[in-house]
Amino acid sequence: MSRAFRVTGARRGGRALISLTPLIDVVFILLVFFMLASSFTDWRALDLATAGKAVAAASSAEGALVVRVRADGALDVAGARVAEADLAARLADVAPERRVAVQPDAGVPLQRVVTVMETVAAAGLTKVSLVRGAGG
């Protein structure tokens, strides 16, 4: 009595098929996880000295180079009108240890003030203060 030796589960003449669906699912879940866990915002801090009271703000502007941001978009540096393109060149002549007071008028958008402050910082001036404008 001879019995034929038979292996069950073996396939004739080929490889076992591996499904890619679980691998794709794991990669997709990892992609979603890392997208939700990461932050794409570039947070940058501005070094800023602010005065607590209006009297202190006026005294902090004394002796400082005042850069006034007007509501109509114009800029004044020490009382003289300056184009925005010429602001960096005008500030390049200022000594790095000199204080600069940025004074926005009432109604000036915050982004405009931040852009002016970044220009001041890019010119190498580190002592920057934000003072309250005449309009509050």
UniProtKB/TrEMBL annotation:
<dbReference type="GO" id="GO:0022857">
    <property type="term" value="F:transmembrane transporter activity"/>
</dbReference>
<protein>
    <submittedName>
        <fullName>Outer membrane transport energization protein ExbD</fullName>
    </submittedName>
</protein>
<keyword id="KW-0472">Membrane</keyword>
<comment type="similarity">
    <text>Belongs to the ExbD/TolR family.</text>
</comment>
<keyword id="KW-1003">Cell membrane</keyword>
<keyword id="KW-0653">Protein transport</keyword>
<dbReference type="GO" id="GO:0015031">
    <property type="term" value="P:protein transport"/>
</dbReference>
<feature type="transmembrane region" description="Helical">
    <location>
        <begin position="16"/>
        <end position="37"/>
    </location>
</feature>
<keyword id="KW-1133">Transmembrane helix</keyword>
<keyword id="KW-0812">Transmembrane</keyword>
<keyword id="KW-0813">Transport</keyword>
<dbReference type="Pfam" id="PF02472">
    <property type="entry name" value="ExbD"/>
</dbReference>
<dbReference type="GO" id="GO:0005886">
    <property type="term" value="C:plasma membrane"/>
</dbReference>
<dbReference type="InterPro" id="IPR003400">
    <property type="entry name" value="ExbD"/>
</dbReference>
